[in-house]
Design goal:
Elements lengths: L4 H17 L4 H8 L3 H8 L7 H11 L3 H4 L9 H11 L6 H26 L2
């Protein structure tokens, strides 16, 4: 665990923002990352740091890099992508095939529209 107050404050701030952006309660997030709600509150307030295992769990939960959480990188690189990955991770696995069909259908529609625009321009 980090004892550096600057690192703890940065981690706490970014974690709280990610939790709120993803509409998660402290209770729900604490379950996902395997810590107590009280501990999570202390982390978010910058009072304490986290173990490497907890940092890894947070990164996986939000699909975000540990570098971002620690304040090494200024942004969450590919934020929209990470939000999509996070949403997919929350889907019940029984619906993966349906999601795959939706994505394939979207891709085909975009590809068809792009080809049509190209054809129209060449006329």
């Amino acid at each position: 665990m980090s004892k550096d107050p600057n690192i703890n404050a940065e981690l706490g701030f970014r974690l709280r923002e990610l939790r709120k952006e993803n509409h998660m309660t402290r209770e729900k997030l604490s379950e996902k990352i395997n810590v107590s709600t009280r501990f999570l509150a202390d982390v978010e307030s910058g009072k304490v740091g986290v173990s490497l295992a907890t940092l890894k769990n947070i990164s996986k939960t939000f699909g975000i890099s540990a570098d971002y959480l620690l304040g090494i990188t200024p942004s969450s690189e590919n934020s929209a992508y990470n939000q999509i990955i996070n949403r997919i991770a929350q889907i019940d696995p029984q619906y993966y095939n349906l999601l795959k069909d939706i994505i394939n259908s979207y891709y085909e529609t975009v590809e068809t529209a792009t080809t049509q625009k190209s054809t129209d321009r060449n006329r």
